[in-house]
Design goal:
By secondary structure, the chain is mostly helical. It has one domain (about 10-175). Helices cover about 75% and strands about 0% of the residues. It has six helices and no strands. It has helices at about 10-15, 25-50, 55-80, 85-110, 115-140, 150-175. Helix 3 (about 55-80) packs antiparallel against helix 4 (about 85-110). The protein is globular.
């Protein structure tokens, strides 16, 4: 039996000093790919959120954001011990679902204002989820203890939700005259 210590990550995991939980050099490569992908996705996502919607630049950077997020989530799902599927893996599945739903909804829709609104909400939540996972992972990396992981994640989601539901309707009204 693995000694999990005082938090969900486990004592053996902490001794290795790794966030990634696969063994060997591959875990280091996948871990770095995941980390760098997260940094790129945060920058791209912010850019896409701040750009004028529907422009070629918005669509191009948005496409790259989606591709990076898919790679990021696949890497996150690969980073686990055989005996553990933890909170970050659950978040990766939710993130992957949100990103893909946001893209598929827009591609399959008639591009009516309501369809664009659904896309905007899904992609905004995708970005907030990315930030929440980053904040949660930072609590682990800073060794603040497992008790801080979920409050950090949920706090980020709460603030993000307030911002999304406060700002996005105004943006959509400005674009289409309705929310």
């Amino acid at each position: 039996m693995i000694d999990r210590g005082s938090d969900w990550q486990g004592a053996a995991h902490r001794r290795r000093g790794m966030v990634a939980t696969m063994d060997g050099p591959l875990s280091d490569a996948v871990g770095w790919l995941h980390f760098l992908g997260a940094i790129v996705a945060i920058a791209l996502g912010l850019s896409v959120l701040l750009l004028t919607k529907g422009t070629l630049l918005h669509k191009s950077l948005g496409t790259i954001y989606v591709l990076v997020m898919i790679g990021l989530n696949v890497a996150a799902l690969a980073l686990h011990r055989a005996d553990a599927f933890g909170p970050f893996h659950i978040l990766a599945v939710i993130s992957l679902t949100t990103v893909l739903a946001g893209v598929i909804w827009l591609i399959a829709s008639s591009k009516r204002p309501q369809d664009v609104a659904v896309h905007a909400y899904l992609m905004s939540w995708s970005y907030v989820g990315l930030l929440a996972a980053g904040v949660g992972q930072s609590t682990v990396a800073l060794r603040l203890g497992g008790a801080w992981v979920w409050p950090a994640i949920l706090g980020t989601l709460l603030v993000g939700g307030i911002l999304i539901h406060g700002l996005l309707p105004r943006l959509l009204r400005g674009m289409f005259g309705t929310a």
